[in-house]
Structures are given as structure tokens and as C-alpha cells.
Write a structure and sequence with these properties.
- The structure is a single chain.
- The chain is α/β, with parallel strands linked by helices and 393 residues long.
- The chain has helices at residues 9-15, 42-47, 64-77, 88-99, 114-124, 168-177, 190-193, 227-240, 246-257, 259-278, 297-303, 320-329, 375-392; strands spanning 81-85, 105-109, 130-134, 150-156, 181-185, 203-206, 221-225, 283-287, 310-315, 345-349, 365-369.
- It has a seven-stranded mixed β-sheet, sandwiched between helices. A four-stranded antiparallel β-sheet has the order 8-9-11-10, with helices on one face.
- α3 runs parallel beside α9 and α12 (320-329) runs antiparallel to α13 (375-392).
- The radius of gyration is 22 Å and the shape is globular.
């Protein structure tokens, strides 16, 4: 369902991708499960063929459930069209494979998501792509690393684990001067709080597993492209045969409808929790762009419409026993991968890999996800655990 752009984003979240008249009046698009799609006549069969794809009328290329989510996300991000993938990483890797060829040069921020870094170094380089990392805070200065054969400039703002905010418009302007595609991991802010195509991005990726699904019960990725990039993304995705299950897509559509309500609560809880942790003597630094003292705060205020519940905390150096005591004392925060669900998480992080600018903090790094619990309870639980860590240390 296409809505006029004059409607507010919250209204789009409720209505985008829905067409009850096509599904017996059902409010939600049903989960279509199937592979074979029957044609009633030869003319109908031939009319469904797409240029370059004579087998388009097949479940692998999408169902009404698939297209409902793709249409909704593309509209929310402001892109031309979108494709669904079975995970966020699958969306990242296949988007890169769609754009890069042997002999190309690709730039990645030094703060990038670990599995994306591994793919760039382990797969892209093996394919003959020249991979180079840049300072995530370079902004327009990235021009010094651009080359005539630079094909992709990847951005992730804020950065994974360390939350550097990138000057995406300045980077995009420089990248487009050499004809490069700008690819963004937009998972942290979601389509609600950052509009990538308004800032020069060509292809935006969401790990829909996180805030779009919102309940920690499905794995999914979405890549949204502008018109310049769409055909490359579509063709490569079809060539690799990527599909996502209808039930996971249905759960993402369900989560999308409440995204605004949930994300505003995550934002509020995250900021209050981060502020309370910043005051504790065992905390060396809080990494959260929505806090006024953060180095990326000015860019965050300029380009973002809000914040999510994910941030990081660098603790003062402590012995292993103190860190164990901290985690054992937490009651409301689970230790687990992923984030974006209704539950709060606290994850011990390895020392960030850096090749451009060294990581200077020597104490443990924690990644925090503020869930939807009472913020007072979250603050009390975290303060008690930090006090326990201080006592053992």
C-alpha cells in the first residue's frame, strides 16, 4: 500500500505494505508458504516472465508476504526498492557481491561490524578486490583514499561496538565524485531514525533481526537500493538464490507496526541508563552518540531523528574475578548475541580490531542494550552490579 509522503512516518509504519482488499479483508498480509505458482494459461505464464529471468514466477523470487515487507521498508527508508535476505549478514555480503568485481577498490570504516570485516578480508580480497580501511571520523577527508577504481565506500554509523558517528553526507559527496557506490549498514537507527537516501547513500542494509522484528524470534535482513543500484542488487541476489522464510517475514511485518512505540522507549531507556552508568567511578567512558559529551553528538543531532537502545561502556581495568562478579550479579540483563528485542542485554566485547587508529582503552568493553523494562529497575540492577564489581576489584 503506497501512502502519500505527507503522512508522518508513524502512519507509514502502520499502513505501509498492507492491502487488506487483496487478502479477504485481513488486516495483516498472510504468510504465503509455497514454491510452485500455477499459471492458468500459456499467455499468463509468459506474461509473468521478467527480462533476463524466465523463471520469475516461482516462490524463490518472492510471495505477497515477501513483497509486503520489501515495499514497506523501501518506503520507510526512501529507497527505490528492497530485497529480503535470511539474515543481516547475508544482506551485507550479497549487496557487496552485487557491486564489486575483481580489480575494484573498496573502502570500509575501521569501526565496522566484525563479520563484515571478516568477509572483506577473507572473501573479497580472495576475489581480487582491493580492501582498505579508513578512519570512521574522516568525513570529507576520505577523498585522500579514494582512487579512480574505488567502487564501494561502506559506512556504518554509528560504528559497531565503539559507536563513532560518521559524516555520511560528506563521505557520499566525495565517493560519488569518483563514481563509487555508498553502501550503509543502517541497523542501529532503523528506518525510523535515519533516512539514508536523504544523505547520499545508494544502498542501505538493515539487520531486520534487530529492531524491525523486535522480539528476538526471527533472523532476517533487508537491503534497499536507489534506482542507480537496484538492478545490480536484484540480479546478483537472484543469481545467488537467496530466500527468506515466510514465517520470519511475517514476524518482521508484525514487528514493523510497533517499531516507533518500541524504539522511542529503547531510546529513552538507553539514554537514562547510559547517563547513570557515566556517573559510576568504575566507568571510564560511555560511548553513546545521544549524550552531549560524546564526540559524535553534533553529527548525531544534525543527521539522526533519534537513538536506539544500544551503546557501549568502557570500564576501568579490573581483574577477571571482578568482571565475573559484575555479570553474576546482574538480574535483568542477559548475556547474549544480537540485540533489538524487548529484553535488555549486556555483552562482554573483545578488544576492538583497529588498523587505522589504535583502541586506547585497556579496561573491559561492554555492549549494552536497554530493553523495554522499567528504566528505574534497569538502572538499579546495573548500579548494583557495578558496585559489586568495585567491591571485588
Amino acid at each position: 500500500m503506497a501512502l502519500p509522503h505527507t503522512f508522518d512516518c508513524d502512519t507509514h509504519l502502520v499502513h505501509a505494505g498492507r492491502d487488506p482488499s487483496s487478502h479477504a479483508g485481513m488486516v495483516n498480509t498472510p504468510a504465503f508458504r509455497g514454491s510452485t505458482i500455477i499459471s492458468k494459461s500459456l499467455n499468463e505464464w509468459e506474461s509473468r516472465k521478467l527480462p533476463g529471468n524466465p523463471y520469475a514466477s516461482y516462490g524463490r523470487f518472492g510471495t505477497p508476504t515477501t513483497r509486503a515487507l520489501e515495499t514497506a521498508v523501501a518506503a520507510l527508508e526512501g529507497g527505490h526498492n528492497a530485497l529480503v535476505f535470511p539474515s543481516g549478514l547475508a544482506a551485507i555480503t550479497h549487496s557487496l557481491l552485487a557491486l564489486l568485481r575483481a580489480g575494484d577498490h573498496a573502502l570500509f570504516p575501521d569501526s565496522i561490524y566484525g563479520p563484515t570485516r571478516s568477509f572483506a578480508l577473507g572473501v573479497l580480497q580472495r576475489m581480487g578486490v582491493q580492501v582498505e580501511f579508513y578512519d570512521p571520523c574522516a568525513g570529507a577527508g576520505i577523498a585522500t583514499q579514494l582512487q579512480p577504481h574505488t567502487r564501494v565506500v561502506f559506512v556504518e554509523s554509528p560504528g559497531s561496538a565503539t559507536f563513532e558517528v560518521q559524516d555520511v553526507p560528506a563521505i557520499a559527496l566525495a565517493a560519488h565524485r569518483v563514481g563509487a557506490f555508498v553502501v550503509m549498514d543502517n541497523t542501529w537507527a532503523s528506518p525510523l531514525f535515519f533516512k539514508p537516501f536523504e544523505h547520499g547513500v545508494d544502498l542501505s542494509i538493515q539487520a531486520a533481526t534487530k529492531y524491525i522484528v523486535g522480539h528476538s524470534d526471527a533472523l532476517l535482513g533487508v537491503a534497499t537500493a536507489n534506482e542507480r543500484t537496484w538492478r545490480l542488487l536484484q540480479q546478483a541476489t537472484h543469481d545467488f538464490g537467496q530466500t527468506a522464510g515466510p514465517d520470519d517475514i511475517y514476524l518482521a511485518l508484525r514487528g514493523l507496526r510497533s517499531l516507533s512505540v518500541r524504539l522511542h522507549r529503547h531510546w529513552e531507556n538507553g539514554v537514562l541508563l547510559a547517563e547513570s552508568m557515566a556517573r559510576h567511578p568504575m566507568v571510564e567512558r560511555v560511548l553513546h552518540p545521544a549524550l552531549p559529551g560524546d564526540p559524535g553528538h553534533a553529527l548525531w543531532r544534525r543527521d539522526f531523528r533519534g537513538a536506539s537502545g544500544l551503546f557501549a561502556v568502557a570500564l576501568r581495568p579490573v581483574p577477571r574475578a571482578a568482571l565475573e562478579a559484575f555479570f553474576d550479579h546482574l538480574e535483568l540483563f542477559g548475556i547474549g548475541l544480537s540485540w533489538g528485542g524487548y529484553e535488555s542485554l549486556c555483552l562482554p566485547m573483545d578488544t576492538p580490531t583497529r588498523t587505522v587508529r589504535p583502541w586506547t582503552h585497556t579496561g573491559p568493553l561492554l555492549r549494552i542494550h536497554a530493553g523495554l523494562e522499567s528504566c528505574n529497575d534497569l538502572v538499579h540492577d546495573m548500579q548494583a552490579a557495578l558496585n559489586r564489581l568495585q567491591h571485588v576489584a
